[in-house]
Fold these 2 entries.
Entry 1:
Amino acid sequence: MKLSVAHRSRPKEGEVENGDGVLVRREGPYTLIAVVDALGHGAPAAHSSAVAVGSLSQVLLATGVDLLMEAVHASLRHVRGAAAMLALFDGQVLHCAGVGNVELRSQGTRVPVLPTPGILGQSYRSLRTVSTKMAPGDRLVVFSDGLSFRLDLESVRMQSPEEACALLLERYGRLTDDATVLVADVES
Ligand SMILES: [Mn+2]
């Protein structure tokens, strides 16, 4: 199976730089999807999210989601901290973990990921990673807290990932924060 992925991100109203960051990276059988939300907004937050995404670009995906998260944590030690959700798909199983409030929701197969309290770059408790066997037709939606947690996935069930991202950001984006949404469909 493979993931068909789209994402959309924009800074809070009045800002040019975006403190949210997204990465979609494929390597061998693996696809990594990641959404990062650095503390605050503006240039310092944009720098931190770029550092975090950069760190995720340099670790072999086969290393696994725990060590990918540790790489983000280490990269942010001397800059602003961040929240992040990482989901690593190996073609069959999705391994995911989050620190802070970037949320992952699913349609189809339930992915019972619970965010680990903490801030990457500062401290977080032992990482809770869940591994879930996926099925064709499943959808994953990852979003920063720049979108309302009341976000309704059913309302965009029939839309492509691209269209779903645009609609969700338009309907549920809060102008007071950087906002990012990523939609990934599992295909056979
Ligand atoms: Mn935020």
Entry 2:
Amino acid sequence: MKHYLYKKEKNNFYPVNDEALNIKAKRRLDEILENKETIGVPTRLLKKWDYVALFQSNGDINKANALYILDENSSYDLSNKLNDLTAKEWLSETVTVFSQKGLGASNKDAQIEKQHPAPFSFQDVLRLINFFTKENHTVLDPFSGVASAMKACAFEKRNGVGIELNSNFHELGKERLKNEIPDDFSYKPKQRLLHADSLEYIKKIADNYFDFIITSPPYWNILETLDHKGKQRMNNKLAYKYSEEDKDLSNIERYEDFLDVLSNFFDSCSRILKNEKYMCIIVSDFRKKDKFYTFHADLAKKIEKKNNFKLKGIRILYQRHKSIYPYGYPFSFVPNVHHQNVLIFQNIKK
Ligand SMILES: C[S@@+](CC[C@H](N)C(=O)[O-])C[C@H]1O[C@@H](n2cnc3c(N)ncnc32)[C@H](O)[C@@H]1O
């Protein structure tokens, strides 16, 4: 007897040994396959349908609304409207700490990324995109730099829109997508990079256009203070700040004004994001002269106060490959900030 129905006992999956129930389960699987679009079965599961069975924790066929994926030993809930992940994949993404993954500085696909002073690793952003969207969803990065988020979207079959003010980064982003995404990837042409001021551009975007927003904005004007890394970049003739343009948020002089502009901008993103969908903002705290700024907390509080977004949690991205510098040694404690905060907001617009 081939098994089409599985249950769970003591955290392990087992086939249900009842022929009549397995026949019923096969029929139900055929129905699911027939209505795959309406139900929203992830394409990757359709591709391995021979390895998919019906699943209900007690083996109750009448309540079964999940699939068991035999070769992954995990289940996928058919009522999952957020992402295409199995239960196992979902749970690991709820742990509040994760480690940065990069290609390595010498990788040929890391050469364009290196020309930006503060890119995120596309593998890290890919994890967040995979958690907060399904295939074919539409994602915005309003401060897209060299298009790391759009590269992840192309790999993961999402439609991406990136907005970047600096023409050099915008061009590098286009080159990156051209060179680093294979031509036969069907979502390569579905990435749009716009050279614009996000604060102005998003006013032209239709209501409820996006399924997810993920971005890392300028961290006020910290790049102006040339630390070790900045000096190294300057010596190597690499960009060490974004631009001199007034519209560039990193050129706002006072921290309080910067926070106001940035939080108002994120609040206005609520309109173009579907309700109940998520926005992830990746930021780190920083030090300027002898003052330490809790940027992540200041920004989170300001955005939440406006009542369009609810803070759902923070994940810490540990940047374990960053060099350690002897700031302050041997006189005082000066931190090497080696983590980013992923602020996770849900749209609860009024
Ligand atoms: C932290 S970086 C983002 C890097 C990006 N995540 C990547 O992986 O390349 C912030 C970006 O915001 C851009 N920026 C600053 N002000 C902007 C504005 N008003 N509109 C659009 N982009 C802006 C900067 O030029 C910079 O590239």
